[in-house]
Amino acid sequence: MAVLERKFRTWAGYGACSTMSPCYLPADSAYYMPGAAYFSVFAVWSALMWPSLARAQSARGGQPSSEAATRTSEIGDVLFAGAAVIFVAMVVLIVFAALGPGRIRQRLSHPAIIYFAGIAFPVVVLTVLLSYTLGVPGSMKREAASRLQVEVVGEIWWWRVRYLDASGSLWFETANEIRIPAGVPVDMVLKSDNVIHSFWAAELGGKLDMIPGHVNRMTVQVEEPGVFQGVCAEYCGAQQAKMRFSVHALAPAAFDAWAAGQRQPARETGPALQPGAERFVQACAACHTVRGTAAAGTSGPDLTHVGSRSSLAAGTLPNNVGALAGWIAASQRIKPGNPMPSFDRWSGEELRAVATYLQSLK
Amino acid sequence: MTTPVPVSTPSQSLPNPLPRPPGELELLEQVWRRPRGIRSLTVVNNNHIGVLYIGTALLFFVLAGVLALLMRAQLAVPESGLISHELYNQLFTMHGTVMMFLFAVPAVEAVAVLLLPNMLGARDLPFPRLSAYAYWAYAVGGVVFFCSLFAGLAPDGGWFMYPPLTSTQYSPAVNADLWLLGIGFIEISAIAGAVELAVGILRTRAPGMSLEKMPIFAWVMLVFSGMVIVAFPAVIVATALLELERAFDMPFFIAERGGDPLLWQHLFWFFGHPEVYIIFLPAAGMVSMIIPAMTGTPLVGYRLVVLAIIGTAFLSFGLWVHHMYATGIPPLSLSFASAASMAVSIPTAIQVFAWIATIAAAVRLRPVKTPMLFILGFFFIFILGGLTGVMVAVIPFDMQVHDTYFIVAHLHYVLFGGMVFPLFAAFYYWMPFVSTRALSERLGRWAFWLMFVGFNVAFFPMHLTGLAGMPRRVYTYAESQGWGALNMVSTVGAYLIGAGVLVFLWDLARNFRPSSEHNAGNVWNAGTLEWLPSANYGLRSIPVVTTRDPLWDQPGIDDDVAAGRYFLPNAPAGLRSTLVTNALDARPEYVLPLPGPGWSPFVAALGTAGFFLLLTFKLTLPAGVCGVLAIAAIWRWLWDSDSAPDIPPVSIGAGIRLPMGCSGRASHAWWAMMMLIIVCLSIFGALIFAYLFLWVTSPEVWPSAAALVPLAWPGLSAVLLVGACAVAIHAARKLSQGGVGALKGYLPFGMVLLIAASALDLYAYWQQGLRPQESAYAAVVFALIGLQATFTVLTCLMGIFTVARVLAGRLSAARRACVDSTLIIWHYTVAQGLISLGIIHGFPRLAAG
User: Cα dihedral angle (B281, B287, B289, B294), rounded to 10 degrees?
Assistant: First the structure.
């Protein structure tokens, strides 16, 4: 009958396709293979994991440098340790369930294990974890009675940085580089009027988005002077990859000196730099501001003291005459799609003149 | 109809005696025959649609995987010039979009379409043409969408498409519209599939298969359907709003005019988080089927697993905010989201330990076969992913790792480990069900190890890359940032995964020989019904089920089923059919006639795909033609439903006579309509959420009481709506009394009332001078009015169809499924209209006063 034929075909298929037959693998190697495989894979990964973790620490470029970041780092260590322990326990459990001696397997096959390990254990662990971790977020967003307010506005692939005075009005504006006094809390006021960006300097703490129509505030307190790198951590279009910033924490006296310098308009240009200065005002004033000259455009970064910044084009280029000239001439090739056109028709002298002039604006 | 179902033990007490009448089997085979040649496009049988569906999903997996390999090639070294930023941004957007929308959800739906009827003892799904339509719409739409890459028109805003980046100002080109319209209608296809699966699971199970005896995969797909029905409408509303903003400048997400980019995020993630559980739970269901079969012992803790599945589904709807931790939401919301995100791991832990207990109870485990190998790989990878998931539920930790490669690592560990590995296990496990040959053990091992090792080499370092500060979605990075070595390792791993998939594809090419008639059979000695001997018609007879693993506990069931001793061993009235049973305890209720192959689902799908895709390119006339074609094809297809001439009740065996078809609340069509109403409610709810959310964030653009439309307008609209409702109730009553002709008058009159109400709504605001572009308030008011207008049009189309059937004599007091369905939508439209009026006209007065 058709059904018997089907049964025969099944048996035949099982035996003829020899890899399917239960006799394919010798019993002992099959016995240990999955367990050995599991352990060996895990051992290899453990061996690779720890040194890589150490490398990641150094690759981060530094240690957590604010209280919030330090606490987060501690929490991170607890989470990693806990996760590693639970993971190892799970692997061991599965290996025993599959290959262990009969007594242990019988214990593990009892539904009670679901209640204990699947409900009770996670409830306890997660409750403890939740209470331990819930204390932290407020400290990152609490509006401290801080001395300094720095408004950072996400632009299309650069950062507008506006320092506010005590009454909340503009003290001075700069771009892409934020200098703060060390040892005191500083309020970052995060905004955007175009697309969503995200402000993130990992060593200083978590990130916070800059959303059109919203104002987000973040308090940062760096203990010791240092330089910290930041990135834009929300996909904001073509050149998110090249939208970086740096935070420089200075000793309070140094910060005051720097801020006083930033408040000043651009320094006087000597006769050697006049042609460059004039060319600049002619070609660039529509978008850029250099206080103390006729250039007062606001759609691009403020260049009043551009010569003293640590990088150009939001962390894309080093800050020197050559790089600056190259940026002016070919910004579309360095950061394609960015709002500044390439001034590729300019001669070498024009480029050099303008770049040298801008470099002089310390 | 309430005759108790006999329990089968000795063969004399089985429903149908042997020998079966001559010609019975031949008629069954003939009625279920598969069309050949070009007519293959007309298949509706779940066996064939299911294989096509899985194949197409696998195709998208491979295509999106290739995109990932290109991305990894670009990121292997710092400052690489291999791929431009434009192409890279399209690649990562398409990788995410294709994987999530065109692979993950369709793949699990496809496995269900293929397996569930057989697993439940049914011959086919309850709406075969609907699943065919859903498949072709998905296949055609998906392929065209993918091909946009070759034209440089692929969307590049990320798979999550956040405005304002994707608003017209920052994404002026048509790429974003392609995503919005393309994905929007593919979601509709997924919802159609979900409704059908839910009705099939609830109403077409084998007699005796109470809910408690259903295979876990059936439970999981039932919960999946519920989640899809509630969650997908949120993304449909979000995509509709963004498309309205782009096409008509209605500022839902533009801050200057009162909109809010966060509205998109809430709507998207309300869909997006349940989406990942929608993807994971069916895979977990597959694991729950495969482990018992490979270990030879029933699942330990069945009831706990069912509870865990339901618990996961409910909890998953409360977690969406954890994708928005960095947006500046209040601390209380953060804490709640953190707690809920941790809590959702508990039901998952329940399932994991149930599986471990089942493995511990194994009767046979060694040698470990390929399906079990993939399951073990799933455990390793998914558990690790779940643990990093608990880590990122912790707020301060997430504030650091959000939007970095740590999250990329986490999501791939849970999705690839939690869905792709079980899926490959399922391929190896269920291949003997669809193919004359099983896949190769040797090649399977190679595929597994390459994929497993490759996956860990690719994605484990990403945890470290993320901790080292690398953000997501960047097309390159500087040498000085120090991420080069880790990225190179990840790239090597990615190519290993590719090699593993290639080995699998090679195995498929060598061993997959699709066949419903001569499949390889129950090579695993598993216990569930899909392993019974089957053919195009599914099972020869529909068995009575008394336990969860019938093939283990009911000896001889395969012979009895194949011989035709159980229920419905024939094709009554020469039609394809299956048995519809009670939802709770699966008592047979009626025989459902099923359609055979036809062109209308295929044509309707082409028309629908054409309509949406041409509209994207603003070719309105061709789009309109496609739309009309789709409606005409759907009309043709529905014209034949519920129109079987009055067949006398059919004997299915054991002295039970059942009607062919059913009207009223017990019918499968009514159940499907009710689920559709839940979809509609979810859409409406999402739009109301948008209204209230925008009011909370931008109360300044809400009008003062003086600027509102006088209450006379909504008052009149409400009267018209109530009138339409009354007309409909009256017409239904007339029909019950036998007066079919009354419908010819009442329905058109009622439709006029509905149209008038909707038009009045619109005119009330228009004559006041309100324009949708003015502010977010105006935009959302017009959106609500527009939604009501859409439902009015839909109701009128169904009304016209009903009247046409009355005129053609295809409707009677007994055969009234058409009217019943129309009236369900009708009453919903009235209710939605009244609530809508209340919100638009009542809420501002409440808020101001």
Answer: 180
pLDDT along chain B (849 residues), means of 10: 46 79 93 93 95 97 98 96 94 96 96 96 95 95 94 94 95 94 86 96 95 97 97 95 96 96 97 96 98 96 97 95 93 91 96 96 91 96 96 94 96 97 98 94 96 97 94 93 95 98 97 91 94 93 94 93 92 92 92 93 95 91 96 92 76 89 88 96 97 95 87 94 95 88 91 96 92 95 97 96 91 85 96 96 86
Rg (CA), chain A: 31
| CB < 8 Å to B345, chain A | 122, 126
Q: Collapsing DSSP states into helix, strand and coil, what is residue B475?
A: coil
The closest of B464, B452, B325 to B388, measured between CA atoms, is B464
pLDDT of residue B747: 93
Instruction: Note whether B390 and A142 are within 8 A (CB).
Output: no
pLDDT (average), residues A327-344: 94
Nearest Cα to A214, choosing from B324, B395, B336?
A: B324
Backbone angles phi, psi at B586, to 5 degrees: 60, 45
B429–chain A nearest CA distance, Å: 12
Distances (CA, A) of B302 to B214, B295, B649: 10, 15, 38
Q: Which residue of chain B has the CA closest to A113?
A: B353
Contact status of B515 with chain A (Cβ, < 8 Å): no
**A300, A286 in Cβ contact below 8 A?**
no
CA distances for B660 relative to B3, B585, B593, B642, angstroms: 17, 20, 7, 10
Tokens of B706: 């003086």
Determine the length of chain A.
362
Residue the block writes with tokens 């204990």: A116
CA distances from B556 to B551, B559, B750 (A): 8, 5, 58
CA distance B570 to B18: 13
pLDDT at B813: 81
The pTM is what?
Answer: 0.92
CB contact under 8 A, A209 and B562: no
CA angle B326, A214, B321 (to 5 degrees): 35
Distance CA B521, CA B530 (A): 10
Residue A119 and residue B461: Cβ atoms within 8 Å? no
Phi-psi map region of B535: left, alpha, beta (phi>0 left; psi -120 to 50 alpha): beta
Question: What contacts B274, CB < 8 A, 6 or more positions away?
Answer: B227, B230, B231, B313, B316, B317, B320
- In angstroms, the separation between the Cα of residue B453 and the nearest Cα of chain A is 8
The shortest C-alpha distance from A75 to chain B (Å) reads 7
Q: Find, among B157, B158, B148, the residue nearest to B178 by Cα.
A: B148
Looking from the CA of B269 toward its CB, the CA atoms found within 13 Å total 16
Residue A10 has pLDDT above 60, yes or no: no
In the numeric block, the tokens 């100002």 are attached to B169
Contact criterion met (CB < 8 Å) for A130 and B342: yes
ipTM of the complex: 0.91
From the CA of B257, how many Å to the nearest CA of chain A? 10
Q: Quick count: other Cβ atoms within 10 Å of Cβ A52?
A: 21
pLDDT at position A2: 41
What's the CA gap between B162 and B831, in Å, rounded?
33
Contact A214 B85 (CB under 8 A): no
Cβ separation B391–A83 shorter than 8 A: yes
C-alpha closest to that of B270 among B678, B674, B686 = B686
Instruction: Report the candidate in A91, A97, A99 with the shortest Cα–Cα distance to residue A43.
Output: A91
